[in-house]
Amino acid sequence: MMQWLRAVKTLIWKDLVQEWRSRDVITAMFSFAVLSIFIFNYAMELAPANRNEIAAGIIWVVMLFSGTLGLNRAFSAEQDQGCFDGLSLAVPDLSVIYVAKMLSNFLMMVIIVILVVPLYSVLYNHSLFHSGFIGVLLLGAWGYAAAGTLIAGMTVQTRMRDLLLPILLFPVLMPLNMAVVKAAGGFLTGMPYTQFSIWLPMLLVYDIIMSTLGFMVFNYVISE
Amino acid sequence: MSSQNKTIRTLFTVAAVLIAIAFAVVLLYAPPEQTMGLVQKVFYFHMASAWLGMLAFLCAAAFGILYLSKKELRWDRFEASSVEIGLIFTLVTNFSGMIWAKAAWNTWWTWDPRLITMTIMAFTYIAYLLLRRGMDDPAKRAQFGAIYALIGFITVPMTFFSARYLRTIHPILFGAGAEKMALSPEMVQTMMVSLVAFTVLFVALLLYRERLMAAEEQLSALESAQEDFDA
């Protein structure tokens, strides 16, 4: 168990150091997120009156789309350099690879939340700092990373690679998307909790199902 | 092989007879609905194809688990066949629903949770077929297909329960929440005939498609052997 945890920690550290040296992916994700917010601004009339209702949806869509950029790169180093074989020999158990990758993808999403939420608050002069709202985004990021890591591990080994990831990922995220947007919007508009109480448990259940499923089947993604 | 042929042929004959009976029962036996009139009759096939679609996706997930534990390509073929059949019948559900919606709701489409979840479920299994097409190695393709059939199945209960737990205008006829609308005994009997007919059709199609896939695999194995021989 200790060995397993140490292996997970080492792999996350490896991903973070690798990302820190170039900062390619996080820069691309953040720029894409900012650009998306600007596109939303002129594509939709973000009048102050209906900002609260739309803000949750916009922030989540921005996270979703910039997240696919990160997921597409998550396994590319391993795939291109033939590192999968090395990794699977080095770790005590194949589940380590899934857990580490999933957590580092989750961290990337958290960084995007940390960057985008204050930026949106400043740009629209409208504070999004609501603990319920942030909590829902983090739970959403968890489910997103859990499903995304599993699917990105498969698509990177197919012929179409980047093209296939959103096509495979977005339909499977449907319950998560609904739950996040409704729950986050509920918290942000100050709706009474009973009106959206169905969504928070659904979010949790989705997170648990996807993490468990990923943990259980990921060894079939990398082994022959 | 020949006994398998016989089974498939018998099943198709039974399915054809049952579907003919279902048509007759729907048209002649089932009473017209009070307010909607004749267009309600599309319901018997709408419901049956929705059932068949979800049953097929459930089978696909089960075959996926079987493949992952047994590693026999036979289960992979059954899984892919189930998905193909389920996808077609999900689309039939969507289109028959649209015909009914135009008459009952006066619109072909509305942004209702049931309709959205159903359509996204169809897109999940379109993605499944795309994933398979993007892979050349049969073992890897089977492995990834099984995994995605498992993950994708999450959209099926979501579709099933969407009309029950979310605010929807889609009718609910069975179980909790069914108090608003009710079927007469003749209608329930008609629906049962249609459900049985479609289920038999599913089994027949599944066996037939699996056999076709097995033949395709044999053919491509023979072709590559021939190429090796020529070279």
What features would you highlight for this structure?
heterodimer, A: 224 residues, mainly alpha, 81% helix, 0% strand, globular, B: 231 residues, 7 helices, 79% helix
What does this 3D model show about the protein?
Chain A is mainly alpha-helical and 224 residues long. Chain A has ten helices and no strands. The model of chain A has no long low-confidence stretch (mean pLDDT 89). Chain B has one domain. The radius of gyration of chain B is 20 Å and the shape is globular. Classes of the chains: A mainly alpha (224), B mainly alpha (231). At the A-B interface, helix 7, helix 8 and helix 10 of A face helix 4, helix 5 and helix 6 of B.
The coarse silhouette of chain B is: globular
Alpha plus pi helix count of chain B: 7
Order of helices and strands of chain A: HHHHHHHHHH
Described by strand count, sense and barrel closure, the largest sheet of chain A is: none
Helical coverage of chain A, percent range = over 70%
Q: Indicate the proportion of strand residues of chain A.
A: under 5%
Question: Span between N and C termini of chain A?
Answer: 25 Å
- List segments of chain B where confidence is low: pLDDT < 50 over at least 5 consecutive residues: none
Q: Output mean pLDDT of chain A.
A: 89
Low-confidence stretches of chain A: none
Secondary structure category of chain A: mainly alpha
The shape of chain A, in one word, is globular
